[in-house]
Amino acid sequence: MGCGKSTIGRKLASSMGWAFCDTDNLIAERESRSITEIFKASGEEYFRKKEREVLEELSHGSSFVVACGGGMPCYNDNMRLMKESGIVVYLKMTPEALMSRLSYSKSERPVLSHLSGDALYDRIVTLLDERSKFFDQAHFYFNGINVNLNGLRDKIFEYLTKQK
Known about the structure:
Elements: H1 5-16, E1 19-22, H2 23-31, H3 35-42, H4 44-58, E2 64-67, H5 78-85, E3 89-92, H6 95-102, H7 117-135, E4 140-143, H8 149-163
Parallel strand pairs: 1-2, 3-4
Helix pairs in contact: 1-8, 2-4, 3-4, 6-7
């Protein structure tokens, strides 16, 4: 959450000549309501079910970059499906860097919207700790600050070449 998946994903897709999909945006569009509204009205379990449906749908495609919500890899055996159907990249960042970014956009993030200061920082640390066992299963990770887009693209193409 807040590591730049959507921004980097769009740029990466463009540089590779691939399509781009942001799963949160796709879910919000299909539901005709924001992620925050989905969480409030229908709950997290409902949202996670919708994430899985989108992931299953996307797992049958090819030649596109997907930016998933920060919690998606942690539920419903999603990381396994992600790894089986594509290359998973973890944009790794420190809690301090995430705190700096998320302080400005926390209202858009249901799991953080009610927090600030030390409570926000503590929640970020807790989420990273809880989710790291899933994130660490990614095929590889890149530093999420000042991502070297060409290096990331080259690493993905190298990985794809080795898989053939």
